[in-house]
Amino acid sequence: MKKLVYGIFTFLLLTSFQQTPDIEKILNDINDTFKNMEVSLLHWPEDLQPKLGKLKKTAFIAFPKKETRGKLPLLISLHGGGGKTWSIEEQLQRSSEVKGLSLAELAGKDLILLEPNSFEKWDPNTLNIMLDYILEHYTQIDQSRIYVIGHSMGGRGIWEWIQQFPERFAAAALGGFSGVSENDDFTKLANFPVYGMVGGEDGKNVASAKKMTDLLKAAGNKNVEFIAFPGANHPQGNKMLFSHVECVDWMLNFSNKN
């Protein structure tokens, strides 16, 4: 009986292992399909990892396939809550379809795309440590043109990040989250470009996104855009946000260079 149980367990374990997608194959398939961006895996150094809190050890980074000259803007994409429990393989595949990598490919712009992955909600302090590392090691980044985009948990993470450290970014595109309050620090964002996006049928998140952009405008911010995608629920709003290339074009107009 013990041998039978052990045999079944071993079979299930091996079957599960064999069904795990090979990340290098996924990566190669993406790069064979993408025409504009070349995607790579970014593994955080072991000595940096303890400082990155709940960030997973692997992030995604993409560069234009065509040769470029001069400095390039950086677009940082933060995933939503579903990504907390997904494998890196699942996150890579999804990002190439309806997340940051997909948007960078669709936009076809000369930029660098960075997509970190997290086990828990985003922490602005650990994200700052991550960004410091990226700017130190990728000197081709134009530090006056750093942009952030995210939906749901990613949108919430960006909202907290730009309130605390707006000087680090040139613009942000975010949506699909709730909890925006009059007590949030809108004074720091009075001149900060924000593109708010949400599915038009995304429950309380619709009012929250509208409240965010309305309060920004009330604070004197003239660089605010808002769109509610008609008929889109939460997942559909995510897909539409990460295919709305107009928001990338819009953000790229801004720089925080003094």
UniProtKB/TrEMBL annotation:
Cited SUPFAM superfamilies: alpha/beta-Hydrolases
UniProt cross-references to Gene3D superfamilies, sorted A to Z: alpha/beta hydrolase
Record's keyword terms, sorted: Hydrolase, Signal
Hydrolase keyword on record: yes
Location of the Dienelactone hydrolase domain: 135-234
Cited Pfam families: DLH
Molecular function in Gene Ontology: hydrolase activity
Protein name: Alpha/beta fold hydrolase
Native organism: Hyunsoonleella rubra
